[in-house]
Design a protein that fits this description.
about 30% helix; about 375 residues; 5-stranded mixed sheet; alpha+beta; 9 helices; 8-stranded mixed sheet; FAD/NAD(P)-binding domain; globular
Length: about 375
Amino acid sequence: MGDGAGGERKTKSILIAGAGPAGLTAALELARRGFVPRIIDDGQGPVPLEESRALGINARTLTLLSASGVTDHIVAAAQPIGHFRIRSGAKVLADVDTRRLPGRFCAIHGLAQGATERLLIAALAAYGIAPEWQTAVDAGIIADLLKPEVTLRRADGATETVRPDILIGADGAHSAVRKALGAGFPGEALEAYFYIADFRYAKPVDAHFAEITLCDPGMLGRLPVSADVLRYISTLEDFEGRIVHPEVVAEKTWASQFRIHFRHVEPMAKGNVFMAGDAAHIHSPAGARGMNLGIEDACWLAWLIAEGREEEYSALRIPAVKQVLKQTYGLTRLVTMKNPLAIAMRNLFAPSLLRFGPARRRLLHSIAGYDTPRPPWIDWAE
C-alpha cells in the first residue's frame, strides 16, 4: 500500500505534544510522508543517557523504523540480547534463544531510551524539524474536538494559542492532552514497589543475555544496557545485597523505584485529538513492551493520517493495547506471586510447557512484538 493519500492532506497542521519515543516517531513518520508536524515538550531535552528507563527495542520496532533509516543506527548502537532466561534458584525454568526468530532481526536489543530518542531527533532534523523544548500544553477543556484549541506555555511564561487540524497527545502518563480531552484513565496499580539500579563495571561484561531470577517470593532481573552497564530490577527493597556482580563495580549510574499501573484510555481518539504511547496506556515493564507499543501506535497513526483514515485509529489500536496489557499483567503476576503452592506449581509446570515448540514460538513472538497485527504498509516478510 502507498504511504500517501494526496497532496491536499499534507497541508494539514499537526501538533504533537510530547517528544519522547512515541511523539518523535509520530513526527518522523509524518515528516517522511510529506507532512510538517510541530512537536513540543515541557522538558529541557531528551532523557539523560544515564537514565536508561525504557531499554528493550523489539523486532517489530526495528521493522517499523526501517523505512526512516533509524533502524540501522539503532542496530549499530544497541546490544543484541541473544538469550532470555528465567531461573528459580539454580533451576532454569526457561531459556529462549531470541536469535531463532525468522527475519532480519533477533527478537530484542537493548539500548538506553535516551540514546534511542537522540537517534530519532537526528533523523527528524534531516526534515528540518526539531522539538520545541520547555513548551507545555496548558490544561483546559478542549471544546471543539474537530478543530482543537490549546494554549502553549513556554518557560519564560509566554503563551500561544493554536488550533491545529490534528492534535496528538504523546505526553506521557500524566498527559495534559488527555486531561484537556476529559478522558479517564481507568485501571489498577499493584501493591508492590519495583526497584531499579544501573551499574557500570570496570571492564566489559557478558551483555548478550537477559535473566530473571525468581526469589520465591519476589524477583531479581538482570538486563543489559551496554557492554559495561547492567540494569537490575526487583520487587525486593534489599535487592542490591542479592546481586552477584560479574565484574568490579565502577559506579552506580542510576537508581529509581516505582509502582506498576495497568491503565488505558478508551477510545484512543476523539474527533481530531489522538492519544499515543504512555498517554494512552501504561503497564508493567515485563516483556519490554511499553516504549515499543508507543512507537507502534505512532507508526499506525502516521500511516492512517497519510491515508485519510485516521478515524480508524482507535478501533485498530485498542485490541493490540488490551492484548499487551493482559499479557504483561499475567507475566507480572507470574514472577511476583507469593503463595507457596502457586510458586511450586509454576516452577514444576513452566519448564515442561516451554519444551513444546508452539509455546516457545508464542513466547518468542511476544518478545519480538510480532503478536500484534502486522502493519499493512510493510512490504517485506518479517
